[in-house]
Amino acid sequence: MKYFFCVPLLFILFSCSPDSVSEEEVMPVGLIDTATFTLILADMHIVDAGSKFQMFPDNRKTPQKYKQYLGVLKNYNVSKVQWDSTLVYYSAHPQKFDHIYSNVLDVLSEKQAKMKEVPDSSFLKK
Asked: Which contiguous run of DSSP H or E holds residue 98?
């Protein structure tokens, strides 16, 4: 008799588990593609770092930072709406965002390696 109750309970437990189809969620239309989003994030971090080291105008003031970020978006032909939508999407999917940031670190590392190869960048070879 006790097995009679276990079978329906097991059925309910396993029927509620996520299936492989839900893990392969389709991204909403209109978002920035993953490769471009990665490059934009990398460029925004470069702008922030450049500002910190006084290579670019100081962007600690919100209007200046906003202009610089819009400049990065314009460079990639991405609208502010697309940027915001993509950021909201990835914020709701932290595992995907983590993967994006792993790629951002790779891009930044590659750019740093290229900078070290340039003769005039001796200040980067510490």
From this structure: helix 94-117
Backbone angles phi and psi of 107, in degrees to 5: -60, -45
Q: Distance between CA 111 and CA 8 in Å, rounded? A: 57
List the one residue out of 37, 55, 12, 47 whose CA is nearest residue 101. 37
Please calculate the CA angle 59-118-101 and round it to the nearest 5 degrees. Answer: 50
CA distance 64 to 116: 29
User: Measured between alpha carbons, how far is residue 35 from residues 20, 65, 120 in Å?
Assistant: 24, 23, 30
pTM of the model: 0.69
Q: CA 7, CA 25: separation in Å to the nearest integer?
A: 31
Q: How far is CA 90 from the centre of its chain?
A: 7
Q: Convert the pLDDT of each residue in 21-49 to its tens digit.
A: 345 677 889 999 999 999 999 999 888 88
Tell me the CA distances in angstroms from 87 to 24, 34, 92, 94, one per residue in order.
Answer: 19, 11, 9, 11
Alpha carbon distance 18, 25 (integer Å): 12
